[in-house]
Amino acid sequence: MSKYNGSNGDTSMGNSIVMSSMVNDVNSPEAQGRPMLGKQELGELQASNKWKWPEVEEILSYLNPWWNTILVSSCVIAVLFDPLFFYIPLIKEEEKCMGIDNQARTAALVLRSVTDIPFLVHIIYKLNDAITAASKVPRDTNPNSESGLVSRVQNLQMVQFVKACSRKLSWRSFLTDVLAVFPIPQLLMVGLFFNLGGSNYLLKRKILSSFLLLQYLPRIYRIYLSSITMTHSVLWVKAAFNLFLYILACHILGAFWYFFSIQRETSCWYQSCITSQPESKCTFYCHHGTTISVELNTTLNHNCVLKVPYYTNDPPFDFGIFFDALKNDIQGPINLQHKLVYCFWWGLRNLSNFGTNLQTSTHLLENTFAILISVTGLLLFLYLIGNLQIYIANATTKAEEAKAEEVREKFETKRHDIENWMTQNGLEEDMKAEIRRNIKQKLEEDISVDLDDIISILPWYTRKPLKRALCMNTLRRVPMLNNMDEKVLKLMCDYLKPMKYQENHLVFKMGDPLDRMVFITEGVMWTYKAATESTGEAIGLPTSASIDTNVLKKGDSYGHELLLYASSYYKIPTSPKNLLCHTKVEAFVLMANDLTDIVNKCKSKKLWSLDNDASNDEARDRF
Known about the structure:
The chain is of the alpha+beta class.
């Protein structure tokens, strides 16, 4: 039994080996028509499938759409944090020396270094891009030239290379970036400011302060260059940018005020010190480790008094606009956040009123600083007003465009009906063009105007020739007006009034006073003699019992009896028949009193003449 099982096991194992080898043969590269890979090639393939670091070009292509935003954000953050350099100095009033705020210095250096990184990357990228583009410019190389010619050719190639680089660089943007990243505040405030001394100490400090102020120009100009792209931005982006500029100006002016207040007090110390001490000993740096004498301390307290008694109107030294900072000991070793908030509030308060409340001394730089505050506030205000005007203009333009589009859509919906109406009435092309122009103008004035009543929305100077074009032929078809002068007919057209009647409307009931003549321009009316309801409301169609039924349509008229009334001053006639609108009717009516005015005007000029035969026929038909 064991042998039998063993043989079966060997058989099954052999079968599985055969099957697996067959499967492997089927899946092998040879079976699929591919060459077999060696171990080295297989290892390289596996290594190539591993994740690799992206190349520089891939990173730049990914960041390119966002790079301008990154630069603007870096500028914004840098300009916001750069004023921290002005908070590095502080005054120790008891020791009469100028020390260093280590918290402000650390924060300023770290934040400035971080915000400079995008600028450095941008500068390196621009240089690399220009060098790469310039290296592709073909240059003349000849290895068989003589040694003297080779050096000349190399020099010429170098000049060509430099020119090609300069053409590829945008120098204005490039120099702005270089100046913006240049470490002026780090060198001046941390390296030089606390080591000034010797002769002309105040002059040196003024020059250094000027460089500190000028270092803001490249960064602000870089923000301006990048913010030009926000011209077509959404409204909230523009509003946020305007608010940022205002807050930034308040922050920077507050930092300047703090920095200048320290310099103003140390200037007072210096001027009091040099009267009794050598100039080299009047620098007042705390880190020098020197202490002033009691006598000099008393002199400084007397000459540079900060707590002025109420009875003193003329203090020994006028600190001007910096007195509030010194009086409140803002320049002392207090918390940095308190300094920032108080100085920001001072900048906001004085920038909002354009510096009108500042009480300055006669010091030149102090007055220059006050003028700078006033001009900055005015420019920001004008910038805001300009943006508001641009926004209002854009909003107005958009509203006008939307209204024009709405007018166009409404006109297009009725255009077919209007064109058909003008064509059916046989209007000339000049009249059609004038009607279209007047309709569009009316729609621009009032989009809710009813285009179903075209005549009523036209101005009088267009309506007048239109009525003559529509009704002259209808008037000529009136029998009693056959011999009437054309001037009279035109005058009658001028007095016509447009009217619309709904279907089944009873215009006249037999026996009603005939107070108007009706000239049909569109639709169908019926005249008939039959018993009607006394209400005078619209009645149904005349029955088979109705007699003397006539159909009036376009070009027909009703109420000729009024001509006899106006000519002979008869009593007001009555309607001999019922006048019923079979369909919707558009017509012109001539009121009885208007016809009387026309007759009086024309009789005075001997223009009124009715056709007597037609008048007799009308009278005979009536009676």
